[in-house]
Fold this protein.
Amino acid sequence: MAEEKKDPIRCRAILEVLGKPKGHVEKTIKLLVEKVKENPENSVLNEKFADIQPEGETVFSTFVELEIVFKGMGPLIGFCFDFMPSSLEVDKPDSLLLKNRDISNALNDLQAKLHNVDMIAKTLKAERDFLKRNFNTVIGNLITVLIKVGKNNLEDLSKFTGINSQELEKYIDELTKDGKIKKEEDKYSLVK
């Protein structure tokens, strides 16, 4: 079967980068454009880099406007998934005729990307929950060790844990509720 001719689609796209330090933002936007150019399914005709601007005191932002020709709808959709442009405008052709197969392929690609994003989100949530549990355990252990060595008031506990007293009280309340420590006047002690 002969390969079907794909009609080219000419677009303008804006890609943005936000981060710090300024040199990293400048390097990243250029690497992003190089990555776009690596794809044989598109041709970058023009690129206009904006000046890097401060966003607040430590963060910087910039963007690049690209004029790109894609070899069909599939590569255009792939570009949108991979680079998430903040703006995309189709210049040519004036109208597109999509075949059922093209729509099905685009929707299947969308579903595959969504499943991948969902898997990443679930993995990151599980890792975050694991780290949070372990962090809480470490802080609880640190508090009980400090109490055991005589650092048993809120001021000392805050000083030696590096956690402000308001935030630290949440951990202390949890340890008290679990029956691991108790408070007598302004001093904490271990429950034996």
